[in-house]
Amino acid sequence: MGDDSEWMKLPIDQKCEHKLWKARLNGYEEALKLFQKIDDEKSPEWSKYLGLIKKFVTDSNAVAQLKGLEAALAYVENAHVAGKTTGEVASGVVNKVFNQPKARAKELGLDICLMYIEIEKGEAVQEELLKGLDNKNPKIIVACIETLRKALSEFGSKIISLKPIIKVLPKLFESREKAVRDEAKLLAVEIYRWIRDALRPPLQNINSVQLKELEEEWVKLSSAAPKQTRFLRSQQELKAKFEQQQAVGDADGGGDDGDEAVPQVDAYELLEAVEILSKLPKDFYDKIEAKKWQERKEALEAVEMLVKNPKLEAGDYADLVKVLKKVVGKDTNVMLVALAAKCLAGLAAGLRKKFGQYAGHVVPTILEKFKEKKPQVVQALQEAIDAIFLTTTLQNISEDVLAVMDNKNPTIKQQTSLFIARSFRHCSPSTLPKSLLKPFCAALLKHINDSAPEVRDAGFEALGTALKVAGEKAVNPFLADVDKLKLDRIKECAEKVELVYGKKMGGTADKKEGKPAIGKAPVLSGAAGDKETKDAAAKPGPLKKAPAMKSGGLPKKGKPAAAAGMGGAGAKGKKGPETKEIFESELSIEVCEEKAAAVLPASCIQQLDSGNWKERLACMEEFQKAVELMERSEMPCQALVRMLAKKPGWKETNFQVMQIKLHIVALVAQKGNFSKTSAQIVLDGLVDKVGDVKCGSNAKEAMTAIAEACQLPWTAEQVVAMAFSQKNPKNQSETLNWLSNAIREFGFSGLNVKAFISNVKTALAATNPAVRTSAITLLGVMYLYVGPPLRMFFEDEKPALLSQIDAEFEKMQGQTAPAPTRGISRHSGGSGDDGEEEEQEDVGNDVVDLLPRTDIGDKITTELVSKIGDKNWKIRKEGLDEVTSIINDAKFIQPNIGELPGALKSRLNDSNKILVQQTLSILQQLAAAMGPNIKQHVKNLGVPIITVLGDSKNTVRAAALATVNAWAEQTGMKEWLEGEDLSEELKKENPFLRQELLGWLAEKLPTLRSVPSDLLLCVPHLYSCLEDRNGDVRKKAQDALPSFMMHLGFEKMAKATGKLKPTSKDQVLAMLEKAKANMPAKPAPPAKASSRVVGGAAPAKFQPTSGLAEDSGSNTMESKPDPKKAKVGGASSKAKGVQGKKVPTKPNLKEDDDKSGPIFIIVPNGKEQRMKDEKGLKVLKWNFTTPRDEYIEQLKTQMSSCVAKWLQDEMFHADFQHHNKALAVMIEHLESEKDGVISCLDLILKWLTLRFFDTNTSVLMKALEYLKLLFNLLSQEEYHLTENEASSFIPYLILKVGEPKDVIRKDVRAILNRMCLIYPASKMFTFIMEGTKSKNSKQRAECLEELGCLVESYGMNVCQPTPGKALKEMATHIGDRDNTVRNAALNTIVTVYNVHGDQVFKLIGNLSEKDMSMLEERIKRSAKRPAAAPVRQAEEKPQRVQNINTNASMLRKGPAEDMSSKLKIMYRTYRIQNRNMGGHSETTHTVPREFQLDLDEIENDNGTVRCEMPALVQHKLDDIFEPVLIPEPKIRAVSPHFDDLHSNTASTINFVISQVASGDINTSIQALAQIDEVLRQEDKAEAMSGHIDQFLIATFMQLRLIYNTHMADEKLDKDEIVKLYSCIIGSMISLFQIESLAREASTGVLKDLMHGLITLMLDSRVEDLEEGEQVIRSVNLLVVKVLEKSDQTNILSALLVLLQDSLLATASSPKFSELVMKCLWRMVRLLPETINSINLDRILLDIHIFMKVFPKEKLKQCKSEFPIRTLKTLLHTLCKLKGPKILDHLTMIDNKNESELEAHLCRVMKHSMDQTGSKADKEMEKGASRIEEKSSKAKVNDILAEIFKKIGSKENTKEGLAELYEYKKKYSDADIEPFLKNSSQFFQSYVERGLRLIETEREGKGRIPSTGIPPQMEGTCVPASTNTVSSSIGNTNGEEVGPSVYLERLKILRQRCGLDNAKQEDRPPLTSVLSKPAVPAVASSTDMLHSKLSQLRESREQYQHLDLDSNQTHSSGIGTTMASPSSTAANIDDLKKRLERIKSSRK
Predict the structure, then answer these.
(1) Are 1595 and 1649 a contacting pair, CB within 8 Å?
(2) Range among 788-802, 1325-1339, 1584-1598 rated most confident
């Protein structure tokens, strides 16, 4: 048992690894309990077991293993880190658990695997299980299969990927083990349940018996869709839904989810692709051409065998397809034709989409071949063409199919119609747009009227199918002229049709119904344009009427591709029933007269043909009245117009009669049901009168009315034809004018462009100029609707005419087609919007289609093709030249270009680069010539162009890119993105190809609204590009990420990272996160039809100019370039019109709606990202002399994501008025969008710098006005400019200081002034200093003046890099040749003189005599003595408010309100906290009554400065709080100008600080929390200023108390101590975060603080506490903060003294000294940055003392060599940084010559001088002047040292002061600064006050209030410890100045201040509790501790009348004696009375 007891004690994790199985078993049991108990999945406990879990499952002992498995399962279920163990554990389970005989073990193993899948590790588990299938042990194989089956049945096929499993299934069925085969069968059944028939093809080759068994099992399965029953952690919402359904017992409730849960699996996807090209017989190509048909048959059979493989690998099948096509087309043996067709079908089925590129070649041949009658041939051809159809789109082959429709052979017609019918079934409304329906229906209508019945039947079937697919609404317009019988027949056919994709509402194709096609590929999986289904399914209902193009077409550039709103309303409306009413049968004249008589007065009819014009006039007037009163229903329009046309009819000679007649026609047309028949009666007459001067307008009005009644297209056609059949030019020109106007009113919809164009051409050729002008105007109007393609028709006009046309087009550029205002007439009332919208599409492409295209097929001869492929490059070039000229001659060509594509493709990889470029230019030309039809060549010619992007030559790449763009402009992007071509290209590791292609995609993708899903295939390659070796590729890949993400979504892209290596994955995911922020928005969909109805019609939306319109084939979305990417003017790419004409850019029409949103969009982290980019040089640094284009472009791009589009257009407009407008908007939004402005501030400032370079004054003034407001706002928001913002803006602002105009200069100066509130003045100084170097004298002068202002406002500290350098620089300008500059320089230096006194002369250096005399003269004139302190000396922080406490005595020149409000807040919090704390220990915490009065007083105070309060009372208040025995060195009470408010805060803070050192832990924690609260709030932290030492002393007293007392106290809960430690460290860290406060800590205090902290770090008892490690880590952090943030002189000094102490104290551990030295080393590392802020004299004095105590010999005896090395390193670093000047800093060392230090420094210097010889000579020259200076300095120093010694001694202090006063009078410029600098604050103020008293006595002036302390002391309130004072005064004889000295001084002070009312007996001297050898003047703060703590204590205890128990005294480490209570009481009474007095006086 002995053994047992040993392992029982071990921790759990060690037990689990023990060699004894019992130990392990016990370990596993405990681990299991532990795992079930830990409820935090992120607990650190889990990580301990990471490496052990594999051992849990692979334990060699079966009993232990079972327990281990249970524990492992619990671990995987609960631990968040479990995923990391997946691979090893799953592999352990497979190999070591699945072979166990125990069923329980297997079961647990299986559960563990499933649990891993649940925690999202499915892939890894599946991989291990599949590996297990290769194991030799059948048990393992069976278990693996079972696990896979279980996983599939529970998680479903979405999570378990089936492809790899199906791949191994056939092998499992062949296993020799029956168990394996049976299990495989069960797995196959489970898989079948999920994917149904898709499983058949992969299993077709297994044993037929097995297959039969399977079939039987499959039949038994229920047909309900299976559902996922177990869910991943990320699928919790699905799980909830599932459980809910289960609970409801909803049997079929999951219908919808079922669809969602089971993705349709395509068998094709599960198959492996087979490569067949290499397996073709060697002699295949010879055999296929052989004479004997048997040989040809052999060749074809070989191919047939190969293409039976259901999935083929992609490759170049062009040659194979070519020969098969030849066989089909030309072979005489019909059997071979059938065989070749079968081969083609097999290829198409096996390659699917990849076969698409060959479809265009083969389709025409197959269709032509349908002339064969033999059924087997026909069937083979049908199968082939159906299979081929599935690889391409109807759009792509429509040209070929339509061409065959007119064939004379009826069989061909029949088969083509049937093929169309079958094809339509695969379409959906979105893939069968109107543009395709139109030509097909037209052709099919011919077929249903054919003489051959079979052709008619086929035609009916095809039309029926179209009707079923696209819906009646779409098809009816094309069936307008079909008689009823035929229409019924079509509808009947439609009902019989079964679609492949079941039809759902909204016309979206959705569910696939598995109706197998005729081919062998079941249609369900059929490549059936999978994209069509997807697209269709993706876009719900309404989109089916997206603007799709006509077969030929795709809109070109700027024409209104779906001019969505030009809607000529129902232009063609719904033909069908309504069309009928527009025509009516013609009535005979008799009938007309009858009808007219019924409605018109009899007299009217009689007078119609009267000979007297007056009668006719009267008659007409009656006629008009009658018509006006008639109802529509009873108006016989035809009869009325016939009456009007009755003799004299339109030959009427009297114009008045004629006018009324024409008006009546208009009335009838408007009011009646006016038919085309009626119109034909009158139009002739109207056209005749159009040109009439008097009647013309009435004629036009009538024509317009008729156009409304009978629709414009018809009316216009009639009118124009009539006009041009006459000779009257006036009529012709006026008709054209009317038409121009009518088009604007009615819109362009439905007009017959072709007819117009021929008439316009006639008009252009007219001799009459008016006709020509009208024609050109009409063209202009047409251009608005049609766009640039219109010009193509007039290319061959005379140049003069062409230039007029161009000018007219130019005028129209930038205009928008107006919204139609007429024509939304009754006819279209019922037609709804769709009729309309779809009508629009045709306009643009019709035009392109109307272009006469030449067929150049016959010119592409075999000779030409062989020329292009010749070996000799010259001949190849000739061939290419020929092609160029052929295309040039033809201008516009048909898509049939024969063998040219292949020939050109091979030239793209020509070794001769010139030919490659020529080929590229031919391809560019080809795109322009062929137009949208070039689509069909994208796969075989377009993709090879992309390959050329990888060329090493820049020019070739550029040409290729231009070509690709030219193609994409014609084809849209969809063609390019479909299929795997692009991903294949990206896969190639060619850096050029990758960067060009990614760049291209990044540019194009954001402009698309949807993309084919194939884009996902590019993602893995995109990720590999992100890690490419080439930087450019990486950059382009990163730029492309947002564009990809915009289409694919973050989730899909993140999922795709799953396959990457872990390291890559993390990087890529980080980049994806970044890209997510910059993701462009998808372009908005085109305006919907609904908008049109509201206001008559929405304006026409122009297809934006990039010709990127999506192909209508399946995406059916008009692509609209992303507005953000748009260049100026909104054109997304300055696309050229076909003939190079610029395209009009149409401004956005929704201007007004757009402007409502915010103008600045906040992009999270946008600004940070931009700064990073600039730092990383990813973008240009904003630095230029004049802004170049690339800067402007860059800014524009950066702005595009965060500035409203319309505002950006204004900002970057070429016209300055737009800039003014933009600025006005920005001013308006400034207040309301603060956050937006701040987030884009860098960009706004950069844009404003661009405005500084504009010449327009109004913009400049506006910009400056904006800047003033902006900087005001920023300073209110307390914002700080970043360096980036400042450096890219300030230099350019300073340029404007030199503007000639006064107003501007004034503004700029005002702005510079304001900038100092949000950017540090010292940094501004450097920028302005740079400005003084300008060539512009005005700028130099203004900058100098500005520098003067800065010094005046902020003191000398703003001068950068040092005051000396800055002044020298300024002084150089005294000699400037420009008078204003000279004056400015002089004034600035005088200003400095006023602030800084005579020292200026030293700093300036040597000036020429002339300059010097000018300066002295100017100084005299200004006659200003240096003021005691600069007026608004504000400290060097980015100043917010000018009245920040400025110097040591908190001199406040500003109003006191702001302080009082802060204090109020502090008091309130303090009082509230006090109340809370009262609960703990009432006695200790109550605030004395007296103070509460005071607090109330302050709270009620309204913040005015109370001048009338006597200074005396202020002291009293402070004094009560601190019964001063030994004054604190920084005693503020004495300074009379210390504003009384502050003293009250001080008292509060003193009180809280006194509690920090309390013996009660809770009290201390409360106090620390309050102080931390104050420190953490920027605005309150200031109040701590002046209390820092006090707080630190209290804090380390508490540390000492914990160390000595609490830690030893057994009864105390150690958690309390940790809490106290964390409070102390926390509040100290808060304190040392605030540099200004941290710098106030004095040397002595820092020394003791470091002592406390280091002791704490070495305290082994702390390490044993539970959180001990954390405490020590925090202390470490704190120490680093203390070293970095405290005043560097003080901390260095403190460390040196501490080191000295620790080396002297025998008890101190070597570890302690070592840590002190480490701190010193850190300080040495910081020296290069801090050297300038360090008082070297003091540091060298400390080192001197150190070396005196530890001479070299003594140091060498130390055990460790570190101390001596530390010292040497420190000195060496100082020498290195300061050079020889270091020797000037030994002023404080009395007898330097004896000092070891000086000798050491000289040695070091000599050594370094020897190394840098030449330097020495220079030093020598300088040295001479320095020696004299030094000797006089030495004298002065000695005298002053004597004087200060006296002041420091007790007896002679008065004498010393008097001497110092005399000395100062004598040498007014003497510098006593060094002597005061290192003394305590108290001593400094003491000396100063003494001098002032002497001054008042001597000059006999009454007592004056003191002024501030001299400026040099500004900001430093570092009280040095008392001893340092004595040492600096020369008290070096080793005695410490005792407290008695201070008591003595205190008495004097008390008498002076009238405070001597409480006589306190002298106290015995206080001694330090810490034993400390009397070392010469080693500073320590213990003396201060005494004074402070005794004050604090007593202030607290006297008021509470408590005795101080000895325990507390002891624990605090200080003996104190109590003051007599009676005196205190007297004090308080006295005070109460005074308070009463004050109160009454103030009331």
Answers:
(1) yes
(2) 1325-1339
pLDDT value at residue 384: 92
Which DSSP category does 1920 fall into? P
598: DSSP letter: H
Element (H, E) at 349: helix 334-351
With contact defined as beta carbons under 8 Å apart, do 703 and 715 qualify? yes
What is d(CA 1048, CA 1133) in angstroms, rounded to the nearest whole number?
A: 24
Summarize pLDDT for 223-254 with one digit per residue, the tens: 777 888 888 888 777 777 877 777 765 444 44
Strand 501-503 with 509-512, pairing: antiparallel
Count H helices, E strands: the chain? Answer: 101, 2
Query: Strand pairing partners for 501?
Result: 512
The answer to whether 639 and 591 have CB atoms below 8 angstroms apart is yes
CB-based burial, 955-983: b 16+ in 10 Å, e otherwise:
ebbebbbebbbbbbbbbbbbbbbbbebbb
Tell which residue, 1188, 1191, 1185, 1183, has the closest CA to residue 1335.
1185
Q: Is 511 helix (H, G, I), strand (E, B) or coil?
A: strand
Q: At CA 287, angle to CA 281 and CA 292, rounded to 5?
A: 145
> How many CB atoms neighbour CB 1413 within 10 A?
11
Give the pair of three-digit tokens for residue 881: 């030249």
Which amino acid is present at 1545?
Answer: T
Element (H, E) at 1856: helix 1853-1866
Q: 3-state SS of 1299-1340?
A: CCCHHHHHHHHHHHHHHCCCCCHHHHHHHHHHHCCCCCHHHH
Contact 1623, 1569 (CB under 8 A): yes
Please compute, for residue 1717, the number of CA atoms within 13 A of its CA located in the half-sphere on the CB side.
18
| Spatial separation of the C-alpha atoms in residues 1939 and 1942, rounded to whole Å | 5
Measured CA to CA, the distance from residue 1477 to residue 1469 in angstroms comes to 12
Q: What distance in Å separates the CA atoms of residue 912 and residue 873, rounded to the nearest whole number?
A: 8
Distances (CA, A) of 1118 to 463, 1124, 1582: 27, 17, 63
Contacts of 1226 (CB under 8 A, 6+ apart): 1159, 1207, 1244, 1266
921: pLDDT confidence band, cut at 50, 70 and 90? very high
Angle (CA) 1959 1960 1963, round 5°: 155
> Distance (Å, rounded) from C-alpha 402 to C-alpha 399?
5
Residues 6 or more apart whose CB falls under 8 angstroms from that of 1994 comprise 1523, 1525, 2016, 2018, 2019
* Residues with Cβ within 8 Å of residue 200, at least 6 apart in sequence: 267
Q: What is the pTM of this model?
A: 0.41
DSSP letter string, 53-110: HHHHHT-SSHHHHHHHHHHHHHHHHH-TTGGGGHHHHHHHIIIIITT-S-HHHHHHHH
| Residue 840, burial from CB neighbour count under 10 angstroms (0-12, 13-18, 19+) | buried
Burial of 37 (0-12, 13-18, 19+ CB in 10 A): exposed
- 463: helix, coil or strand? helix
Rounded to whole angstroms, the Cα distance separating 886 from 1191 reads 44
Whether 2015 has a pLDDT exceeding 80, the answer reads no
- Rounded CA gap, 978 and 128, in Å? 35
A 10 A CB-CB count for 1233 gives: 18
End-to-end CA distance of the chain: 92
**What's the CA gap between 1228 and 106, in Å, rounded?**
74
The amino acid at 365? T
Mean pLDDT for the stretch of residues 1645-1663:
84
Average pLDDT value over all residues in the chain? 75
Does an H or E element contain 963, and which?
A: helix 954-971
